[in-house]
Design a protein that fits this description.
The protein is mainly alpha-helical. The chain has helices at residues 2-14, 22-41, 48-76, 82-101, 103-124, 129-146, 174-183, 186-206, 212-215, 217-239, 246-270, 282-299, 303-332, 348-354, 366-375, and strands spanning 153-154, 168-169, 337-340, 379-382. The strands form two sheets. Strands 1-2 form a two-stranded antiparallel ribbon. Strands 3-4 form a two-stranded parallel sheet. α13 crosses α14.
Amino acid sequence: MMIIVWAFYILFKWLNPNNVNEKKSNMVWLSAGFLLIYLYAMPDIFQGFFWYTGAAVYQIGNILLVAVFVTSYQVLTSEAGKRKAILIILNILFVIAAAATNEVVLVQMGGTIGVCFLASIYQRNRAWRWWLMLGLIALFAALLSLIAPGNFVRMDALHDVHAHSVVYSIPRSVFSALELLTSYKVWTSLFLITIIWMPWANKIAAKEQSSFLRVHPVISLIVIFAIVCLCYFPFWWIFASYTPPRTVNSIVFFLMVSWVVTMQATVNWMYQQKFALPQLPAPLVQGAVYVFAVVLLLRMTTLPAVLELVLNARKYDAHMTQRYAYIDEQKKAGNLNVRVDSVTIENRYSILMLAGTDITTHSADEKNRYYADYFQLDSIQIAHEPVLPADSTRAR
């Protein structure tokens, strides 16, 4: 993360408004185009090279997208005529294409734009800081409940630590998405960050005209990122029962950085200090917000497929709930070799998202053995014929 912060610093220094030219902007666009080809060319996300470079690719994608925003703004302000319209179209197309490749790129881009937008507005009207911070957190929660439904949120994760390995589902609402973040030990990490950062915040705010954030914004950001990494990721590795979903990881990381910035703003306000952040051109930030809104709007063109997936997820949840009740009945009756019905979902995305971890017809299957251990059974498998009577109104 420190490397990423320095990469942003070098990027903005290299793209200084005084020395940006068409050659540099073309280099940025070509790099973004190469990233898109790389992301689209990999037929299987579990292919070795992509698997080991995936996290770096997402970070590089985020940096390149910000670079596209910067170069577009600076070139547009220096050129006229039809060329402006062409550059605007290229800018939007690159951002849309990159955001459509992977939900992680979309989330990280949204987080970066959100933080920049917050900083830009804050510079002009600091009285809005609380509403802006709440809006930024709400944006992350909304993204969590909007993108890739069924792909990274596990049913009953709030109630059962083992349920994430059993079935998939989606968050029911923005509130449930925030509740999901709570289940991921986020607030414990925020508490640790608060304890570590607050003493430093007091010392920083106590300095009248030499605010640490104002004089050394890059170093201060590195410190913030380091503290977040120190409190967040080791906590995952030590206490988490499994690796957190990458999308939620990105959202939580930006949430924690925003939390540190909010704490510093609070302390500075108490000391009647100005809170300075690295400032970006207002039109650039506003344009980024507009383009990001267009991206989200265009993503909603897949709304029918998303709704179908959501509805199937609800049906799948109901099916699993009734299946668990049936298994409990069988255990109480002394039957430890249970046969259940399979899940039938026609939509291919729903099959991949929802039924990909379902029980198979072979009792010796490794997945089935895990299910048997989970339910404390001798064996469990899918039956070819329904187990319940034909007149039963309860699905299994």
